[in-house]
Amino acid sequence: MQTMLAIVGFVGLIAMVILLLKEKTSVQVTFILISGVVGFGLVGLESLSHFGLHLEIGKALGIKGDYFGLKELSSFVKKGVMSVAETAALFLFSILFFTVLNTSGMFDKIINALIKQCGKNTYSVTILTVVVAVIAHLDGTGASTFLIAIPALMPIYHKMGMRPTTMMMLTVSAMGVMNLLPWGGPTLRVAIITNQDVTELWTRLMPIQGVWLVFCLILAIYMGFVESQRLKKLGITLDNSKQSLDSHKEITQETFMLRRDNNFVVNCFLLIFVLVLLVFAGFPSYFPFMIGSTLALLINYPNLKNQDKVVKKASSSAIMMATTLLAAGVLIGVFDKSGIMKVMAGLILNIMPESLGTYLPIIIGILAVPMAVIFCTDSYFYGILPIVASVGAAFGIDAVTLGIVMVVCRNSATFMSPVVPATLLGCGLANISVKEHVQATFFYAWIISIACLISGYLLGVIHL
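User: That's the sequence. What structure does it adopt?
Assistant: Structure tokens below.
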């Protein structure tokens, strides 16, 4: 019976991955649909005991009372949703907080000031690209980062004859660094699946994040050299005079009316205040953003009508992620809390050579970037990480360690993947094809991924 349950679990997760990759349904619908089919299907099979057919599904899963019924399914779903509730709250209020700061013009002001200081040499442009991407990706949302960074940087690359593929490569590399923040999607997913506090997980990731940023700057300097040599071969010479290259991003009347340039300094201090509370105060991770979003709204938009406009502006992204997380809670409840993941891992252990078990983090780390091209973020973390964690537990490998390996090694390629919608947006804004982006970025993303894996081991963050 355990083998049959494992096969049911694998079929369910494979179906989920296929639906996500084929974009047949939304993430939320996919999670709830697959969970519902598996959950109610097993309840139906277990109920055949009333007609004399005893499959003993509950006993095989180790459920108290040896029965898998509607009551048990309800309990598993409740536990799964409760496990993601705090994370959903974190994401809702972090999106609102950064939307308020972004709408006020705080990030635009910083980025435009940096662009005006950019000298006419390739090194300053490539380094600037990393800095702009880091600032723009503070909110952890890929689409908004591309919408802020690419229109601001494109005129510079165009006027200097530099390739937009270089701009995209450096932008997504820096975005990978910032995706490790506690309100970044991948880190949130790992925290949910490994049942860890997201702030504690981020604290553990901080050393790798610092080293990774250095790698990005090294890559920026190297690509500055590559672009410089390329321009020389093409016979294009650049003087060192500074040139004002303002963003050509169009500003609508409503956007202009919501700008609050006079509050720039106050907003900067507010951002620092929230981050200090998040790291050092010991509050639940969502609480500093509740305080921050409240103060940001009161400071920048004391008028209720304007507050409603900004909240509505944030609502699309917030609702999308919150519903995804809650739907993921249903998936976790049906597959993990019920014990299905354990029997799936047991089946893998029976067929996997024992000698490979101790090298599982290394194998997963090396394969992370190629897998990122194939699997979207949700199918990678929700479909693969739970199984990997269950298998690793049999070899004494901490689930959090495996989660860290997967999130660190994949993040360098998250916005290179053609199955991540934000990638398509970025390529469209940069006027390049996804194929050109992958060809230009893949090798460097993989090198950074492996370098971060090694750095994590040397820093003691990853235990192999």
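Confidence is low (pLDDT under 50) at residues 239-248.
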